[in-house]
Design a protein that fits this description.
317 residues; five-stranded antiparallel β-sheet; 57% helix; disordered C terminus
């Protein structure tokens, strides 16, 4: 019990006892209400025991008993039984003490029951809030899944249409086909596919938003990318500084034999794509790209589009 609460309860008890004493002195001449039954001194005892438990009930019983014994009572008559006289004097304080303990303990049981119900109610509210959030999240995911399914149904047709370009006899259109397939797979447009050409890594295909990106990669950056079995991002201590001049994430596209067929460079990505799940998804995109390049003729990736046949000097070199 806090100090302020204890002080307030003691003040309440003092006020009740003080009012009863004042009423007793004014109305009965200070007899501790000996002629009244039930005695008004029961009131503070029951009030404290019911409201705050046996501890405060015993304190109220003690104060009432002290006032009871302090006040003068009628003297024992000559023909009165001493035992009966002493019982009449001591019975009210005994009853106050017994009642304060009994009622106070019942109050403690009630308070513990109320506290238990409040804890159960809070747990129920927390569980309800958790269930509500879970339902809301499930609803949002279900809606997103429905949208994704609808989009994928449209995307399947586009992917099939784009994949047919792999069999186009005009090999000059192949970079555009690869760009469309990677864009649909990665859900991004600002990327460049670099493939090895005569000892250097040059741009083979680009997304629609990759206009003006470097046409070839510097040797130091290539070495750093090829030395890492996973994606290279700006957060990497070694290659991050080199990568920051060109893009935000680079993935070596390794085929089933661990041969690097291409480097998939993303120049811009949304922040959520840098999560563990996002990197795993993009790494899978690079793996599928490597699988496609592995089944194409060996000279396809060496045939650069006209724009990439011109060496352009840049900082990336």
């Amino acid at each position: 019990m806090k100090a302020k609460q204890l002080l307030r309860i003691n003040a309440e008890l003092a006020v009740m006892i003080g009012l009863l004493v004042l009423i007793d002195v004014k109305s009965t001449g200070g007899t501790a209400f000996a002629a009244l039954n039930p005695n008004p001194l029961w009131l503070p005892v029951l009030a404290m025991a019911l409201g705050y438990g046996s501890g405060m009930g015993l304190l109220a019983a003690g104060m009432a008993s002290a006032y009871w014994f302090a006040m003068p009572h009628a003297a024992m008559a000559l023909d009165e039984d001493p035992f009966h006289y002493m019982l009449a004097r001591s019975l009210p304080p005994l009853m106050w003490v017994a009642a304060s303990v009994l009622v106070g303990e019942l109050t403690y049981v009630r308070q513990r029951r109320i506290a238990s119900l409040e804890r159960h109610g809070r747990r129920t509210e927390d569980d309800l809030a958790t269930a509500t959030n879970a339902f809301r999240l499930a609803s949002e995911n279900a809606h997103a899944l429905q949208v994704r399914i609808a989009v994928d149904e449209v995307g399947v047709g586009r992917a099939i249409e784009a994949a047919t370009g792999l069999f186009d006899p005009d090999r000059g259109r192949l970079p555009q086909t690869m760009s469309r397939l990677v864009a649909m797979d990665a859900q991004a447009q600002d990327f460049t596919i670099y493939t090895p050409v005569a000892g250097s890594w040059r741009a083979f295909a680009q997304g629609q938003e990759a206009s003006g990106r470097p046409d070839y990669l510097a040797g130091a950056l290539v070495d750093a990318i090829l030395a890492t079995p996973q994606a290279v991002t700006l957060a990497d201590p070694g290659a991050g500084a080199l990568l920051g001049r060109i893009g935000v994430m680079a993935l070596p596209a390794r085929d089933a034999r661990a041969t690097v067929r291409a480097i998939l460079m993303f120049h811009h990505l949304e922040p959520e794509r840098f999560s563990r799940r996002g990197i795993v998804d993009l790494d899978a995109v690079a793996s599928r790209l490597a699988a496609l390049l592995a089944v194409l003729p060996a000279d396809v990736s060496s045939n650069q589009p006209p724009r990439f046949q011109v060496a352009i000097t840049s900082d990336a070199a």
